[in-house]
Every structure is written in structure tokens, then in C-alpha cells.
Amino acid sequence: MFPFLTVLVLLPLAGAALLRALPEGARSRVREIALGVTLLELALGIVMLTQFDLSDAATQQFTETYSWIPQIGASWALGVNGFGLSMVALSLILTPLVILAEWRRDAEDHHRAARYLALILVLQAFMVGIFAARDVFLFYVMFEAMLIPLYFLIGGFGGEQRRYAAVKFLLYSLVGGLIMLVAVVALYFVGPGGEQAYLIDNLAGYDFGTTAERLMFLGFFLAFAIKAPMVPVHTWLPTVAETARPGTTALLVAVLDKIGTFGMITLGMVIFPQASKWAAPVIIVFAVISVIYGAVAAIGQTDMLRLVSFTSVSHFGIMVLGIYAFQQTSVEGAAFYMFNHGLSTGALFLVVGFLIERNGSPHVSAYGGLQKVVPVMAGTFLVIGLSALALPGLSPFVSEIMVLVGSFGVANAAVVVAALGVILAALYVLLTYQKVFTGPTKEGLEKTRELGIRERFVLWPLIGLMLLLGFLPSLAIDYLRDPAAAVVTTVNAEVSE
Amino acid sequence: MFTAPDISYMAFAPLLIVLLAGAVGVLVEAIIRTPATRRAVQLALTLVALLGALVVSAVQWASLTAAGNVAQTGFFVVDRQALAWFCLLLVFGALGALLFAARTRAGEESFTSLGAATPGSPEEAEARRRGLEVTEVFPLLLFAVGGMMAFVSTTDFLALFVALEVFSLPLYIMVALARRKRLLSHEGALKYFLLGAFSSAIYLFGVALLYGAAASTSYGDVLTAVLASPGDLALFVPGAVLVIVGLLFKLGAVPFHTWSPDAYQAAPTPVTAFMAAATKAAAAAALLRIVFTALYPLEWELSWMIWTVAIVTMVVGTVVALVQTDIKRMLAYSSVAHAGFILVAFAGFSAQALSAVPFYMLTYGLATIGAFAVITQVREKAEDGTVGGEATRLGQWAGLGRRDPMLAGAMALFLLSFAGIPLTAGFIGKFQAFAAAIDGGGWPLVLVAVVASAAAAFFYVRLIVLMFLTDVPEDQQALVEVDYHPYTRVVIWITAAAVLILGVLPAGALSIASDAGVLLIGL
Questions:
Q1: Which leading EC class covers this enzyme (chain A) (predicted)?
Q2: Which of A274, B79, B208, B231 lies deepest, with the highest CB count within 10 Å?
């Protein structure tokens, strides 16, 4: 069997090495090479999609298991079920689009372009690796190693405050990651141990003892909560969003933050089902606070990039609510929402980035009446904005409804409050649209450039996907139903015993 | 009636080779008059001796069937643990020797031309004019390595003391030999010497107490005596505490660390590199052996001390490192913090420490030697173009990534390894140390270590940021020069490759380390 996942991890690394090693003469081709590598990745991903056995979506497929560090029980074990596949697909779709979106930047400075693109490729390797890891140790290593390219992406490319933002990001992530490390080490001693001590399959359903399980769960959860950004450990995200390049932020929020929620499901619920259930009430409270706080904070923002990042805080709250409601529909919805949010927020960051590129200002107040000047852009922005507020017909709607409906009955009050967040979403999206695009055109904006061909190529595929999945959600949900059912059964069975 | 001691010379061969080569080195110093020839001969002799001893150690390792050999009854053992440390020290010694031999582009070496001359005196000027050269650092290095090897293989408190002095005295001298900033160098050496003497005294006092209680200075006898009198520990506990304090001095743990930033900064950088890696390794090894043989039954009485010192060391090392502006001092304080991480592995006295600590010291030592080697390559340049001393102010490193990406990349790798980021050797080392602690029930200590690591990452990363992400004005760039010497570069590439390999594919080294977790006597 072709080792799809290992190739998906190694290919971008090779691409990054190639970009740095290119002779002077070929430097001007770095963007094409990077795009080529990511498109090749995407093609491989599509082949995987066709070979995936949908009738067995809950089982890990394309598995590879090699002994890596037997002394501490770590293996190079990769594999995806329907859920992991959807996340891998998300990262494969977004990376080439981000490269395309950042195409014009550094067009003259090839060295700088090569650095940026090499980091993006390294990041892609780790993204795929994390979503495909079936070994806790491997997951941890990728989780931490990923900080290095991200740190350089944030600290090396972006606005004035970029170094401060990078340090803030690093410190938050590192504290979470290192606390997770304690839990990872503990897992070896409390768990089954041996040469494959960290395989998730071996750890699932293992009886660690109540206290140990809860402590380890908390270690993992804290790291995931920081990554997913949940209130109150979200404050690094707005700082990063306002300074980093929109492309970087798009990848960060759309894909990398999903590692948090992904970990909650694939590690938290699978390995620590009882502790997950035990902590769920408190987590749900924090999730609801995130929903409302993120939405209210978004309304108050004047910087569009910060605004979008706060909407994400709000949306991640909904995902976490769905996960910890432990219902078939809610978990399925959360998993679907993770994919949709990736499309919609990724697109939102990119379109805002295009807008800022034209005028230079990220502030809402600097704009007005752009609708008449750049109608296509206005329309695109509106559709993407509507997807963020979950308008029916676009895929985020389906997933949001699934979470809310699925969680109702288990956490009624939480759902009622979270639904308020949905209403607030309409407020921040439409208010922003109104201020930026309607009314009389602001002076100096009359010559604003319309969306170019390249930019349409970046945004429209994402909109197309959202429309497709909005009307035919089963195309994606078929991949998620069985994995969701499997974890939900685990959690509920464990507890009813 | 005198009985001749029964010495197993074969088992002892690695140590004898190194010490004999040191003695030959002293002769070479007297016989060969031309500095250039003498230097070449000394370097060759040193490397051949160290690598020869390494080969012999490896052969012994392979031929050991049981836990090991007794080299001399009651004083020295050569077991797998000792052999592992031998190899470690020999490798550090060989890398150190290469750094000792390196010179700047202008042909200037790191050591003063006449160690005995007062700074600024006519004698010094005369020595410089006549092109005198210090090459006795090579035999000194050999004696230091030999002393350390004895230090890690001894099983007797008095023999340990002798070994301690054998390896410390050459270091005191070498610290004072810096070519530039002579007064600073002398001051650092004096501090190091005084505090070293102080720690020796404390250690001896502890040994006296233990002798008073057990009527013997052998680890085994002390162990037997402790076990025989479980109710009466009035002499054992203070004795053990003082002995451990003596070793904590060498390890550089707070509050016994005060010499290390000064000595690190003052010493010629190649000496710092060797000292930082090897002294710490030897101290950790001796502490391991003592803790797991003689003092094992005192776990309950001693753990408070280990815990307190570990926590204070990690916190102080990290916090003070945060505010340093000199790279050598920053790395010195980071080494203090690392001493804390090593002590974490001791928490709970889990036998896993016997393999975790050697591995930790391997990863730490390689990265340390590499990092200091990089420091020797970054030099100040005066307005008239003459290359001066090392540029150790943090600000001077800005933009290094632009000028020499490979050098800066290697430095970044070492720093990431210090910080314990995955896919570098430091991560696996830290993982092992934490695993040993958690195994022994020391997870609260691990939590502290984790927070300290996160804070420590800040100052490692700050240097990386300076090198790669900071733009330097043109006029500033001209004031720093990147030097090049093949020996130094070889050391940098070897250590960088090792840090990467041990980080990505550590399985082989880990299995050696776990084989090394055996003591011939004890447990």
C-alpha cells in the first residue's frame, strides 16, 4: 500500500529544503515551486479521498506503524478515519490558496519570499502530521515542533508589533504544551507502557484510575484550550491576528487552532472518556462564555483582523459546546463545523487581507461606500460574512444547527445562551459590511482596485465548497458520522457502567 | 605488614592512557622549543590519547558480560555506568581540545602568551613580541579529563576527593589564561578557586562525619552502616548533606552557583565550553553514584534538600538569565537552570535516573560545546579593520542569520535544544529526566520544571530573534566580524549533527543509556 500519509508529511519538508537550496538564478521561481508542491499534496489528498472506504469511516485507514523510539514507547504511527481525513483535507485545500493569496508580497525580494514559503511548507507538513498521528508522543512532538515555523512566520513577517505578538504566542503555546508534556510522560507510567505505549488504540479504554485520568486529562485539555482559543486563554490570538500576515493568520485560525478541538475529540474523549464527562459541565460553561464574550468583543473591535479573530473565539465556543455535549448530532456537528469554520474564517481573513492590501488600513473607520467602487469584492465579502453568521444555504449553517439541536436536551440553558451568540454574529458581520461597503464612498477610495483574477481564484473555490456542502451536507457528514458515533458511544458507555 | 594492592590494569586502561598522555604532554612542553611544532604535537597527542581511551572504553563496554569490573578493591570500579561517563567525558575532551587549538583568522589563539605575567606588564609585552605560546593547556586538559574519569568511577569518598582536586586544579589554571580581558580572567579564576576550595572543605567535613559514623569511607561500607543503624542517623544525615553540598558546588546548583557566571564569562571561551559540559557531567555522575550506593537508604531524609535545591535552582537560573545582556553569562545562568533540571531527575530516587542523567548530560554537553564554539566565531571589529575579542554583547549578534546563515542556524539549533523543543536532543533529554522524576513520584517538581522551561524558552528565543529577525543598520554590521577556523567549524558541525540526530532518531543512544543504568556496587 502506498504510504500516503508519510509522503504527505515528507513532501512539503523536501519542498521547503528545495526552496532554501535553490541556486541564485532559480530564485525567482520560488512561488511557483511552493504552489506546485502544495498542489501535488492536494492531488494526493484527492486520490486518498477516492480510496477511502466510506463504509468503514470510523476505522483508521491508510495506517502505517513503525517503531520509532521503543525505549519510551513512541511509534511513527499515522492513519486517518473520516474525521482525521476531513482535517487533513482542510489543510491541503487551504495551503495552496494561502500561497496564492500572498503571491504579490515579496515579489521582488526572492530571499524573503523563499523564507516565507519554506516556513509555510514546513507548517503544512506538521499540520498533516498532527491530524494523522495515531501516537500520542508523535502528536506531542509535532504539536510543539510546529511552534517553530509559526513563531518565525509571526515574528518575521507582518506589522510593527510582530515580535511582541510572536513571543506572546510562543509563551502561551509553550506553557500549554509543556503542561501537556507532563501528562504525556505520566501516560507512559500510568498506562500500559511497553514499546507501543503511546498508540492511541492501546490507550483507548485503559483504566488509569480516576485521579490519574483526571489530572492527565486536565494537562491535555489546557494545551488544547489555549490552542483552540477558549476564553480566558485566548488573548494571544487577537494580538497575533492584527500583526501577522493575513495568510498566516488564515492558516493559523482556520487549520491550526482546530488542533485544539481535534485533540479534545481524538485524545480527550477517546483516552480519557470518564474525565471528559466529569469535566464537561465546567467546560460547557467556559464554552458558552467564549461564545458570548467573543461575539461581544467582536462587535467592539475597530480593527478588522482583530474582529475576525474574536468571531473565531465565539465560534470555537460553539464547537467545544458540541463536543462536550456528547451527543451523536452535536459531536458530528462540531466536527463538521471545524471543517466549515476553516473554509469560512480562512476566506474571511483572506478577503479582509485583500481589502487591507489596497488601502493599508485595517480600521473599519477608514472605509465606507466601497460597494459602488468594487461590487464584486463587496459581494464576495458579503457571502463570506454571511457564512460566518451561518446563513442557511451555506455549510456553516448546517453544522451550527447540528451543534445547537444536538446539545439541546443535555445542556438546555447553554444552548439558549449560545444561540444568542448566533444573533450577535449577525450584528458584527452586518454592521461591518454596512460601515465598509454601503453609504457614500469615502474620499480617496474611488480608485480602489476590484478583485483580480488571482484573488477570485483564492476566494471563490472556498465559497463554492461552502455552497456545495450547504446544500448537500451529507457529502461531508458521511465521513464524520461513524467516527462521531464511535467516540460518543465510548464516552457514554464508560460512564453508564 | 604491607600488602600490595591488586590493580586490574586492563579495566583501568582508559584512565591510565589519559593520565599518562598528560604526563608525556608535560615532557613535550619541556623538550620541543618551536611553538608551532609543539602545538601540533600536543594536539595530536591529546586527540590520540582521548580517542584511544574512547576506543578502549568501547571495547570494554562490549566485552563486559556482568555489571562490570573492580579496578581496585574498594576504590574504583569500572562498570557500565562508569564506562558510559568515560565515553561522554572523552568526547567532550576531544571536542574541547579541538577548540583549544583553533585560532582566529589573524592567527591569534584564545590563550595568553605567558600565563605567569601580570596583565599590562613589560613581561607580557615581551612575551607577545617574541611570539611565545601557551601549549600547556593540552596536558592540563588531559589531567582534567583524567581526574573527571576517576571522579565518576570511584566508590570511595576519599578517592573522590582526590579526583575532585585532580580535575579542579587544571581548570582553575585554565580559567585564568584568557588572552583578552586578563584582569577579568584572573578575577574569575580566583573566585572559582576560592569557592572551589570552600566546597572541598565542606565536602571533606561531610566525609569526616560519615567516617565517624561508619568507620570507613567506602560507599559500600557507609551503605552497610546506614542500614545497620536505622534509628541512629545523627551523623549520617549531616554528613550526607555536606557531601552533597560539596558536589552541588561543582554542579552549579543554587545557592552554590555563584562562581559559575563569573568563571564562565572570564575563562577563554574554549575552556568555558569544555568546563560547562564536562564538569557538570562529572559532578552529576558522582552525585548519581553516591546517591544510589551509599546514601540510598537516606532517601526520606535527603529528598527535601534535593527538592528545595532543584526548585530554587530552576527558578533563580531562569529568572536571572532573563536579564543578562552578555551571551556567555546568559548561557552560564542557563546552565544553572539546567543543573536544576538534572536535579529533577534525582527526585524520588528512581533508578531510571541512572540512564536519564547520562543521556541528559550528553545532550546538554553537546549543545553547550557547540554553542560556545559558535561564540568564538563572532568577533568584534575595530574601525581600522583589526579583529578583536569575541562579541558577547547580545546586541552585537543582531542580523547574524543574514551574514552566516549556517552558523546562526547551528546556534539556533543549540538554543532550541536547550529550550527542549521536540526534534532536538534536548527534548529527549528533558523527557527522560522528567520521566525519571515522575516515576519516583516527583511530578510536582516536574510541573515547576515545566514552567521554568517555558520561561527559559523566552531568552533562548530572544537570541534567535536577534539573529534572524532583527535588521541591523549598515554601520553596525561593520563592527562585527564572523571568524572562521576549520577546527571550530568541525566541532560546530559535529555537535549540531549530533543534536539533530539524537533528537530525531534517539532510539540507539537511548538503548545504550538504558544499558548504562547499572551499578556494580549498590542498589
A1: oxidoreductase
A2: B79
CB A436, CB A358: distance < 8 Å: no
| DSSP codes of every residue in A227-296 | HTT-TTS-THHHHHHHHB-HHHHHHIIIIITHHHHHHIIIIIIHH-HHHHHHHHHHHHHHHHHHHHHHHH
Which residues of B sit within 8 Å Cβ distance of A? 416, 421-423, 427-428, 431-432, 434-435, 438-439, 443, 446-447, 450-451, 453-454, 457-458, 461, 465, 468-469, 505-507, 510-511, 514
DSSP summary character for residue B521:
S
Q: Are A171 and B468 within 8 A, CB to CB?
A: no
Residue A179 touches chain B, beta carbons under 8 Å:
yes
Residues 6+ apart with CB under 8 A from B177: B111, B112, B115, B134, B137, B185, B268, B271
Q: Cβ A148–B434 below 8 Å, yes or no?
A: no
pLDDT over 90, % of chain A: 34
Q: What is the pLDDT of residue A496?
A: 55
Q: B465 vs A166: CB contact, 8 Å cut-off?
A: yes
* CB A483 within 8 Å of CB A82: yes
Got the DSSP string for B291-330?
Answer: HHTTTGGGHHHHHHHHHHHHHHHHHHHHHHHHT--BHHHH
pLDDT number for residue B475: 67
pLDDT at A446: 80
CB atoms within 10 A of CB B49: 27
Q: Is the pLDDT of residue A465 over 60?
A: yes
C-alpha cell at B441: 513520584
Give the sign of the dihedral formed by CA B12, CA B18, CA B24, CA B26. negative
**Mean pLDDT in chain B?**
88
ipTM of the complex: 0.84
